[in-house]
Automatic annotation (TrEMBL):
Choline/carnitine acyltransferase domain ranges (all copies): 208-785
UniProt family annotation: Belongs to the carnitine/choline acetyltransferase family.
Organism per entry: Apodemus speciosus (Large Japanese field mouse)
One Pfam family of this chain: Carn_acyltransf
InterPro entries tied to this protein: Carn_acyl_trans, CAT-like_dom_sf, Cho/carn_acyl_trans, Cho/carn_acyl_trans_2
Keyword list, A-Z: Acyltransferase, Membrane, Transferase, Transmembrane, Transmembrane helix
Protein name, as recorded: Carnitine O-palmitoyltransferase 1, brain isoform
Transmembrane residue ranges: 137-159
PROSITE patterns in alphabetical order: ACYLTRANSF_C_1, ACYLTRANSF_C_2
Length: 835
């Protein structure tokens, strides 16, 4: 799988080095770490990033024949975006201020240039005495521009040096030293007053390459708890041979690559983990329950779709104008915004050996699927973006359309869930016979699926309804999602929403930012009329949605043979379980003075050990967006300290005080690993890059081969809530989101994601495969619930939770909290009532 890819990298490496060395930069915010222009392309990460051998990440070089996205009409807009990002964090008007200051000094007969402006005048053409004043203005403008550029360069260098400091990560939680306070103050000063989304891209440091000796040492430490003595001795021997024989050469070449590319690992990660994977995209897609758990703003499907699509396009407008504020840690440390660039107008184009990301600068329609039929819905008129009511009208027309699906059309989207090589071959036939329809889908801003069934939490059976909700969001029915699109908006018949996201273009925090904005804006700001419709009035002059025609020959063998059967098997094999844990949440964990993420990770270790009776390699996703074009790193949560704590919890001879002491030691270890991963000192991305380099150089490295062959039986990720200011969970606790999830990384593994819903609840999403005799999502869910209560009982303030739970018994109504499926007017938020 890797050899053909690595041959292409030989051809690209020189071009990458030249472009980076001579100062050429892709547009601010692009993910084109390989150094090619973004003309065709750009923490729920545990699943698809967990298995290198199953899901290979991305050079953005397009294949011949793919249309480019940077049209002449879009070039001025792109140049403006590049200019604004290039001068940031300095505002463009600062040049005018500097020029005015120089002119004022000249009026006062002062020469701030120390004679340089006179030298510039001598170089200008001699236009005669009547143009002497014009020559002076031009000389002052040239000098101001040079001085302005030098100041911006100095600002970028100073800011990059400041952002390269990671000592603040190592400080204890809640404590901040004087040097860190000084550092934060300087970052604030050099960051400017109102930074844009891509303002910090050219000031972000590059991700460092750790030392091979330190990475290997950390690796051996991480596998010691899960390997027997003989297996560990073999691993040590292979590691020693690697450090002595292959590591020096591979490390040298990796250092050279880190100087040429924006990020030494992210481009390879995108290509080999995602774009070169030949399996179904169902294996790497993740979902978001893009809705409130206990409240439905309107039961009208078309109205909910109208508001949601309008809000998503509002977000795209803000994104294009860079008016989205960059994400800041601690309110000051910026994160890389590169992944935002390909959020909209992006499609993953299948290839026989490798897929490509095709990104368009703009798209003024969405593709809609309903009852086996495809439609093209325009989103703009001559006056701009259509109103929510106009979009609702379009979607209602689709719902009311009685026409049946054409032959082969109903299950056509199942091809996007087929193995990629098969879909690449069949797509050529589809493109030949239905090029217009295919372009309408692939060129859409995003994909919309109007589901014919209801979704979400129900009163009658809350447990089963949530599980079904998660399952349909993750897999669909195998033929009602265009998995190639960057994301699919799912609107259920009862007004519930969901999001299905293709993983190669970005990780969960980026799509999660979009999801939070959409959820808050379409409900609280746009709102709905009292009858449930979008606000406003229908437009009788609006054209009907365009029904797409797929003139596919019924006798075409590839299309018939690639039907929905394969995707149906994948869909049936996924076991999803979702449960809100409402006994306690983040506020209790804060009272225990413990990191909330470390608390949950140790709970998961305890629950998994009780479920399987053994420890396993555990994947926890951590972001590396502190660096330019950083994506993720692995935190290996199954540590020696965690194993000691887990064994103590099931040892009746150990007291609560002893278990608590071991728990705190394990938490400290986990926090150290998390901070190391975030600061670029993780293990797995470095080992992955060394492995790819070894294949590129045809170097045999048995140690690296063994590392990449290991499987993650437990893949975990926390879904961060980034825009808490958009929600008022204290006054309106029903208006909380329920997060999202992903599939298992291996046939006998689990995929677990979790989100803190407000301060007093945690929602867990668990997945596994029904074909496995070793896993059971519901069984693990019960173990997680018991483990949460057992760990909480170690703390004096939490001992009452377990007594309370034992007194209530298996009361599913209590477990699933306050359940309400009523429709409400979000302009007047109302708490839901108990059952």
């Amino acid at each position: 799988m890797y050899l053909s890819a690595l041959r292409s990298w030989k051809r690209h490496l020189w071009r990458v080095w030249v472009r980076r060395t001579i100062g050429w930069f892709p547009s601010a915010g692009t993910g084109a770490a390989s150094g090619v222009p973004e003309t065709t392309s750009e923490d729920l990460d545990g699943q698809s990033q967990a298995t290198v051998n199953q899901r290979p990440l991305g050079c953005s070089v397009p294949p011949p024949g793919l249309p480019t996205s940077l049209t002449p009409a879009a070039l001025p807009q792109q140049l403006l975006k590049d200019f604004l990002a290039g001068v940031a964090p300095a505002p463009p008007l600062s040049w005018l201020f500097l020029f005015s200051a120089i002119q004022l000094a000249c009026l006062l007969q002062l020469d701030p240039s120390l004679g340089l402006m006179e030298k510039i005048k001598e170089l200008l053409p001699d236009w005669g005495g009547q143009h002497h004043q014009l020559q002076g203005l031009l000389a002052a403008a040239v000098f101001a521009s040079c001085l302005w550029g030098a100041l911006i360069f100095t600002l970028h260098v100073a800011l990059r040096l400041l952002l390269s400091h990671h000592g603040w990560l190592l400080e204890p939680h809640g404590a901040m030293s004087s040097p860190t306070k000084t550092w934060l103050a300087l970052v604030r000063i050099f960051s400017g007053r109102q930074p844009r989304l891509f303002s910090f891209q050219r000031a972000l440091p590059r991700q460092p390459v750790p030392s091979a000796q330190e990475t290997v040492r950390k690796y051996l430490e991480s596998v010691r708890p899960v390997l027997g003595d003989d297996a560990f001795d073999r691993a040590v021997a292979l590691a020693n041979d690697f450090l002595r024989l292959q590591a020096p050469r591979l490390q040298l070449y990796l250092q050279l690559k880190s100087w040429c590319a924006s990020n030494y690992v992210s481009d390879w990660w995108e290509e080999f983990v995602y774009l070169r994977s030949r399996g179904s995209l169902i294996n790497s897609t993740y979902y978001m329950m893009q809705d409130f758990l206990y409240v439905t703003p309107t039961p009208l499907q078309a109205a909910r779709a109208g508001n949601a699509v309008h809000t998503l396009l509002l977000y795209r407008h803000l994104l294009n104008r860079q008016e989205i504020a960059p994400t800041l840690l601690m309110g000051m440390r910026p994160l890389c915004s590169a992944q935002y660039e390909r959020m909209f107008n992006t499609t993953r184009i299948p290839g026989v050996e490798k897929d490509y990301l095709r990104h368009l600068q703009d798209s003024r329609h969405v593709a809609v699927f309903h009852r086996g039929r495809f439609f093209r819905v325009g989103t703009h008129s001559s006056n701009g973006l259509l109103s929510p009511r106009a979009l609702e009208q379009q979607f209602q027309d689709i719902l009311d359309d009685p026409s049946p699906a054409c032959p082969l059309e109903e299950h056509l989207a199942a091809l996007t869930a087929a193995p990629r090589s098969m879909w690449a071959q069949v797509r050529e036939s589809v493109k030949t016979h239905a090029a217009t329809a295919l372009e309408a889908v692939e060129g859409a801003a995003f994909f919309v699926s109007l589901d014919s069934e209801p979704g979400g939490l129900t009163r009658e059976d809350p447990a089963a309804s949530l599980d079904a909700y998660a399952h349909i969001l993750l897999t669909g029915r195998g033929h009602d999602r265009w998995f190639d699109k960057s994301f699919t908006l799912i609107v259920f018949s009862n007004g519930k929403l969901g999001l299905s996201v293709e993983h190669s273009w970005a990780d969960c925090p980026v799509s999660g930012h979009l999801w939070e904005f959409t959820l808050a804006t379409e409900c609280f700001q746009l709102g709905y009329a009292t009858d449930g419709h979008c606000k406003g009035h229908p437009d009788p002059t609006l054209p009907q949605p365009q029904r797409l025609q797929w003139d596919l020959p019924e006798q075409n063998p590839p299309i018939h043979l690639s039907g929905p059967e394969g995707s149906r098997d994948l869909v049936r094999n996924i076991d999803c379980h979702v449960f809100p844990f409402s006994h306690f949440g983040k506020s209790f964990i804060k009272c225990c003075r413990v990191s909330s993420d470390s608390f949950i990770q140790l709970v998961l270790q305890l629950a998994h050990f009780r479920d399987r009776g053994q420890f396993c390699l555990t994947y926890e996703s951590a972001m590396t967006r502190l660096f330019l074009e950083g994506r993720t790193e692995t935190v290996r949560s199954c540590t020696r300290e965690a194993c000691q704590f887990v064994r103590a919890m099931d040892n009746k001879k150990k007291t609560d005080q002893q278990c608590l002491a071991l728990f705190r030691v394990a938490v400290d270890k986990h926090q150290a690993l998390l901070k190391a991963a975030m600061s670029g000192q993780g293990i797995d991305r470095h080992l992955f890059a060394l492995y790819i380099m070894s294949r590129l150089l045809h170097v045999q490295a048995p140690f690296l081969t063994q590392v990449q062959s290991q499987q993650w039986l437990l893949s975990t990720s926390q879904i961060p809530v980034q825009q808490t200011h958009l929600f008022d969970v204290q006054n309106y606790p029903d208006y909380v989101s329920s997060g999202g999830g992903f599939g298992p990384a291996t046939d006998h593994g689990y995929g677990i994601s979790y989100i803190f819903m407000g301060e007093d609840a945690i929602n867990f999403h668990i997945s596994s495969k029904k074909s496995s005799t070793e896993t059971d999502s519901h069984r693990l869910g019960q173990h997680i619930e018991n483990a949460l209560l057992d760990v909480a009982s170690l703390f004096q303030v939490g001992q009452h939770f377990k007594r309370q739970f034992m007194g209530l018994g298996e009361n599913s109504g209590y477990r699933y909290g306050i359940i309400s499926c009523k429709s409400v007017d979000p302009n007047i938020p109302t708490s839901s009532s108990n059952l």
